[in-house]
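To assess whether ligand presence alters the predicted conformation, the chain was also submitted together with inosinic acid. Input:
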Amino acid sequence: MHNDVERVLLDEEAIRAGIDRVAEEVTTAFEGMDFTVVSILKGSCIFASDLIRRIPIPLELAFVSASSYGDGTEAGKLKVNFLPAGNEIEGRNILLVDDILDTGRTMHTLKDEFTSRGAAIVKSCVFLDKPSRRAVEFNADFRAFEVEDLFVVGFGLDFAGRYRNLPYVGVLQPEAQERVARSAEEARIAQSASA
Ligand code: IMP
Ligand code: MG
């Protein structure tokens, strides 16, 4: 798996320092409040679990799933699942956590969803921010790193479902990206043939 990575953008030490900083900012912002951290699956699970362990104030944890990507790198439609029940949203202070803010559609949609279901405060925290890719206006309240317009994998971020378990953030070799895309496409075809 490591051989498929062409270049490491953020190593483990840099990631630790970035999460330490953002955790402090979140702690200061929510000090004295009850709040719920909502981790957006699947990509933010690694970041969210590191983040909350560095926030030394009471919080609750919830998950939603929002997939805007199919097996490739092009944005598709957004599907939202596992929304917390009404009584877990109404009047609650929410911190939405995602792996990367790209076009902004995921965060924009989820912020609207939580606000319209009666959340008191909805703030957002992202591991990576790619401001150059924004399609809808959205600024994260907290972000660990800004990255340039490159497709990145690792630390929760996937390509066709793979590479989430890389402990760093990197860019794939073009050859690896083609190989994984090809095998995902083959699996899709095999599945639709047997359905
Ligand atoms: P948005 O709705 O376009 O902001 O997309 C956010 C989602 O797109 C993220 O949660 C990721 O799942 C996916 N995504 C965007 N850019 C990348 C990338 O560079 N690598 C892996 N996934 C990405
Ligand atoms: Mg993804």
